[in-house]
Amino acid sequence: MARPSQYPLELRRRAVRMVAAVRPEYDTEWAAMKAVASKLGIGTTETLRKWVREDQVDAGARPGTTTEESTQIKAMKKEIAELKRANEILKAAASFFAAELDRPHTRS
Fold it and tell me: Which of 20, 37, 88, 106 is a plausible cystine mate for 42, CB 3.0–4.6 Å?
């Protein structure tokens, strides 16, 4: 499980909006990200770059798996694992009962 972000969601959103707003003032997107990260006290520019990319994917401006899709995939993987465990339990129980039915029973 991913660890929770040390940055509040509103700070993340604000930082992404700021990058978009100040981008024309810089030669590169990285330079804009670096300036915003510095102004907002974000540990590394790479952290902000990931937020910007995630926002672009979620908005459909960049190909990739959206946050919502990623959440759904994780939930489905968890459900599949639970179903596999339940299936193994059912197989073991069926095998046990089949063996019990095949075993000769003696009456007293």
Answer: 37
